[in-house]
Design a protein that fits this description.
The protein has 409 residues and is an alpha+beta fold. The chain contains 16 helices and 14 strands. 38% of the residues lie in helices and 17% in strands. The strands form 4 sheets. Strands 9, 10, 11, 12, 13 and 14 form a 6-stranded mixed β-sheet that branches. A 3-stranded mixed β-sheet has the order 1-7-8. The chain has a 3-stranded antiparallel β-sheet with strand order 2-4-3. The longest helix has 17 residues.
Length: 409
């Protein structure tokens, strides 16, 4: 197949189509749609911040609309999903377990996620904990009393929590299920009894598969975008060589110097994009850990969206807010909103909503954003909305008016 030529807008549309974010869902979601969405993305990143819905639930909402968050927990408990380190900590389809087994077998290469010193110096304690799980069954870190101090990051975790985490990274324990989002650990052979290491694919095959998966999930990709998706380490397979072998298609985006690659599964979708037939119509809010924006460099190059999560920035130095959600509107990232769901009060607060430079406020834009915000608030169980701060100021007035009149789809 000859090189596919795309305009920038078509490249964005192809990316969104691959992520199932081109238009709103056509029907109410079912449990199977949760698993299908994770398979399309390849993974679902986990984060615990909950000023709005925790990130994995929000990423699914952006794609599926109203759905039952418990379905994600059920799929994990049923063994359709497992947890491990992919882009970061992620929910992953269980059929991909073998692709990550090499990481479990070489945990020292996982950096801060594993401590060989801890395993060596606390060998007796770790062995005792593993024996406890084997004899008594699944455990949570909260099952163990804290001897003192304050809970926090890795170095402030109680010893049992640190041991559970290194055993998880080494693949000896898996996450059997979650309760109130707390991990419940059990022996890997009990959680995934059908696995044995004779099933582990060769490392070269794994590396190649990660490249192909990333390109398929992204819709199209520069070579430099690919390693970030699964956080792979060198050596990286050359996508040009995979294209020579017929495993990827080549593409060019008008005005870009670097070539791009498209998975053959998206050949027809790419042709439609090139013909201008993919027209993004969805307006929604994105999690900061959505695959569309989690690679900040890719978000800048593809959407012109310069994004940084500021929850780890001191409050006085934040420009946009604690947990800003990018606003996707009809194929463009047009702004960001720092939202908070006051669930007990039933109020969804837009603490700050800021449009991107060059985005012109209009009644139509305000109506699209208001409808998306109302859908999100309703899903959070917050029927009331409040706009605290908006930039530009005139957009705040338009948005207030739209929020008062719009009926969410």
């Amino acid at each position: 197949m000859s090189e596919i030529k795309l305009r920038e807008s078509a490249a964005r549309a192809l990316h969104l189509a691959a992520q199932e974010m081109l238009g709103p869902p056509r029907r109410r979601a079912a449990k199977a749609d949760v698993l299908a969405a994770i398979r399309r993305m390849g993974m679902l990143q986990i984060d615990t911040i909950s000023v709005v819905a925790r990130s994995p639930y929000l990423v699914l909402w952006s794609r599926l609309g109203d759905y039952e968050p418990a379905w994600l927990d059920e799929l994990l408990a049923e063994g359709a999903l497992f947890e491990y380190w992919a882009h970061e900590a992620c929910f992953l389809p269980i059929e991909h377990y073998g692709l990550y087994r090499h990481r479990m077998l070489d945990p020292e290469a996982m950096g801060w996620k594993y401590s060989s010193n801890w395993m060596r110096e606390r060998a007796a304690e770790v062995a005792s904990l593993l024996a406890h799980v084997r004899e008594k069954g699944p455990v949570r870190s909260s099952d163990f009393e804290r001897s003192g101090g304050k809970a926090g990051g890795w170095w402030e975790w109680k010893p049992e929590k640190r041991s559970l985490e290194v055993l998880f990274t080494a693949g000896q324990l898996m996450i059997a299920r979650r309760h109130n989002f707390q991990r419940i650990y059990d022996l890997a052979e009990r959680v995934h009894p059908g696995w044995h290491d004779g099933l582990t694919p060769p490392l070269e095959e794994v590396r190649r598969t990660f490249v192909l998966q990333a390109v398929r999930s992204l819709g199209l990709a520069k070579a430099g975008w690919i390693p970030d998706y699964h956080r792979t380490r060198r050596p990286h397979p050359d996508p040009a060589a995979l294209a020579d072998a017929g495993l990827l298609l080549r593409a060019r985006v008008e005005g870009w110097d670097e070539p791009l690659y498209i998975h053959p599964d998206h050949a027809q979708l790419a042709a439609r994009a090139a013909d201008g037939e993919l027209r993004p119509s969805l307006t929604t809010l994105l999690s900061p850990f959505d695959p569309i924006v989690w690679d900040r460099r890719r978000a800048l190059e593809l959407f012109g969206f310069d994004y940084r999560l500021e929850c780890y920035t001191p409050a006085e130095k934040r420009q946009y807010g604690y947990f800003t959600l990018p606003i996707l509107r009809r194929g463009a990232l047009v702004g960001r909103v720092d939202a908070k769901a006051h669930r007990k009060a039933g109020e969804f607060e837009l603490r700050s909503i800021v449009l991107e430079p060059g985005v012109r406020p209009s009644e139509r834009l305000a109506a699209d954003v208001a409808a998306a915000v109302k859908r999100c608030a309703r899903w959070h169980g917050c029927p009331r909305l409040r706009v605290t701060h908006a930039v530009p100021e005139g957009f705040g007035d338009l948005l207030e008016a739209a929020l008062g009149s719009v009926q969410p789809a």
